Amino acid sequence: MQPFDPSRTWDVLVLGGGNAALCAAITARAAGASVLLVESAPIAFRGGNSRHTRNMRTMHDAPLGPLTDAYPEEEYWQDLVKVTGGLTDERLARMAIRETERHVPWMIAHGVRFQAPLGGTLHLARTNAFFLGGGKALVNAYYAAAQALGVAVSYETEVVDIALDDGRFASATVARAGERHAIRAKAAVVAAGGFESNLAWLREAWGPPADNFIVRGTPYNMGVVLKLLLAKGARAVSDPTQGHCVAIDARSPRYDGGIVTRVDAVSLGIVVNREARRFYDEGEDFWPKRYAIWGRLVAAQPEQIGYSIIDAKSMGRFMPPVFPPVKAASIHELADALGLDAEALERTIAGFNAAVRPGTFDHTKLDDCRTEGLSPPKTHWARRIDTPPYYAYPLRPGITFTYLGVAIDERSRMLMQEGSPAANVYAAGEIMAGNILGKGYLAGIGMAIGTTFGRIAGAEAARHALA
Amino acid sequence: MRSPEAPSLEGLVAEAQRVLAICNACRYCEGYCAVFPALERRLSFSEGDIHYLASLCHNCGSCLYACQYAPPHEFRLDFPRVMAEVRGATYRKYTWPGAFSGLFGRNGLAVGLAIIAALVLAFAFIAAYAGPERFVSAWSDAQGSFHALLPHDVMTGIFGIVFVAAVALLGVGFARFWRDMGEKGGELAAASAAEAAHDAFTLKYLDGGGIGCTYPDARPSYARRRFHHLTFYGFLLCFAATCVATIYYYGFGWKAPYPYLSLPVILGTLGGIGLLIGPPGLLWLKARRDPELADPRQGGMDVAFLVLLFLTGVTGLGLLAWRETAAMGTLLAIHLAMVLALFATMPYGKFVHAVYRFAALARFHLERRRPLDHTAE
Known about the structure:
The complex is a heterodimer.
Chain A: E1 9-15, H1 19-30, E2 35-38, E3 55-57, H2 73-84, H3 90-109, E4 114-115, E5 128-131, H4 135-149, E6 152-154, E7 158-165, E8 168-176, E9 179-190, H5 199-206, E10 214-215, H6 224-231, E11 236-237, E12 243-249, E13 270-273, H7 287-299, E14 306-310, E15 326-328, H8 331-338, H9 342-355, E16 390-402, E17 405-406, E18 413-415, E19 421-427, H10 430-433, H11 445-466
Parallel strand pairs in A: 1-2, 1-9, 2-6, 9-19, 10-16
Antiparallel strand pairs in A: 3-5, 4-5, 7-8, 8-9, 11-17, 12-16, 13-14, 14-16, 15-16, 18-19
Chain B: H1 9-26, H2 35-40, H3 47-56, H4 62-66, H5 79-94, H6 107-130, H7 145-149, H8 152-180, H9 190-202, H10 223-252, H11 263-288, H12 299-321, H13 328-345, H14 352-367
Helix pairs in contact in B: 1-5, 3-5, 3-14, 6-12, 6-13, 8-13, 8-14, 9-14, 10-11, 11-12, 12-13
């Protein structure tokens, strides 16, 4: 199939190559539409951030596949309200939640396989359905399914312009191997992700602190399609400083470090900043419920760096990080190794140790080990840091994806600034996740949003094109 | 052609430790096989752990295609290849006597010389004992015609010695490997051994977590498992045929060749058919496999073993087909030479993978019952 035949008009053009784009392409093609999918990444890095995912948060009223017990819509919704502080669109959010249950058989029919929760993730056994082999295996299965159905795929193809007048899409101009091509289509699905890989744009939004951010996700989400759509009158949602941002190991690669860069030691010890001071309650809640706020917390510290410090008692009690800890026989030596003021760190730890009340340590529940008279307090799992050797992991903010996006309606139609839907443009995935995620993050909801609105966008785009 | 030098064991261990630390922090591949649950029990990896995990790996390839860190990612994580390279080092390290470990690196040559030596021996013996004209003269199918060329006691003596020596040498490798995994001698509990045997006989882990393994390319398939079954069960059936024939001879005084519908011939025929299809199938897949999955230094060893198995099967079936013709003497000499070469090279070729894999599987089942001394939560 000639993707760039100038005489051709496709029924549906899908911009992007991750989970949402693939769900849209498969759905549109299965409905009978001719579909071209353009992916900016080379084949080895196809799939955007879906390549780094591992599960989908899935509603269910009874045990479903690998999912135990029940996770009803209302509980899912309340979990979302908690992390977003209510910054969400309830109608769209409930759509995404309700559809997840129906996704599981559809995903299996398209080659995705599920498995029991991974070691160290038992707390997600009830809520999150894990993909066998993780997100890249899912992406591989979807590309195979799409191509078997007859979806045309063009890799290393960058969108450079979109012809969008009065909310009506006519064509997209793409660049491949140094040549430009105009691709006409009756409908477009935009599923090209956020702008997290675009360091200049991050700096514009965050100022100089952005220079210390690490992009945990794909290097290919430059926000080109998002920027074009906003410039051509699409209505924006969320703001450019919002995103899924976690604290990750400061030694991670600039891009694409993915899951292994996480540091799960935080709730077991203390976290100090450049000045060797604590700045937040490390024991506020279970780490999986708090990991998503620590990126922003570290981003707010001087030079955007923090240090998670534990002692020998805690070693081996958390998922092993990929980088070895900085290790020292005394707090003084640890401070020297980290380049911190040794006396300041000794003071902080002495103060912390003095404030720890006796309790029964139990990392599997919100235990009664806490500090008293300390600011900020540590409300659970507070144990004295007194048993050498001492260990530290340096932390930086790690951006997974950004929430600034385009507004949509319940048919996944992209909304224009005045509020009316675009005639033939449908949005899915990260590029519209900000409709549901105003802030914060709930593990596995990105795949729920992408799959729901990917499938809706594909169906709606095909219906429009074939009408 | 001489294979390129194997990498140093120290370098391999360091690279495996790097890779295993990434895998232990990721864990996405946990559902594919036993290797990942086994590595997750550990926070660090000794050399013994690395030999263990490498032999637990069946090189199915599923984890490579699912890996977000696979090349060209800057982590350059190629788990199946690293494990394949370690297995090469495992074979060299645990083989006994150690002076023979070089045979793994020049295995095609070693197997080729063994075949030639066995052929020379077989033809020379038969020529001396029965006369060279027997290679071109017709033989009736009367009981005992084979042994008019080669006395049964001589045959049993030679093959018995080679077989017992091969089993003993493989046993030494097993014991050394078992000890280095940190297991005590008596701990190969019956239940673990039975579970390991189940996994080995079903090739449980050549299934990519339930969809077929990504071998020879990214599309999941059961082709490798099926060809391996044909090869393995073909070999076992042929071995069983030989055992039954030995019992017939010494137990009942019945002499080969046996009728077409006798147990040894039926077993041998079925086994021969397995060896006729299985090894070429595996070679065909191997020729098509993704080079990322392979350790190119072991290509010669893999091919030599499969070719020898195929030749054993083909010559056995050929002997069966033409045993009542003038070619019988020649065919018998060739077939016996192939079997002799197969057993003589067994402790120093690809066959050893079965020994270490069984040990690793048994260890896996032993270990998974033990409580963890740390929580990885």
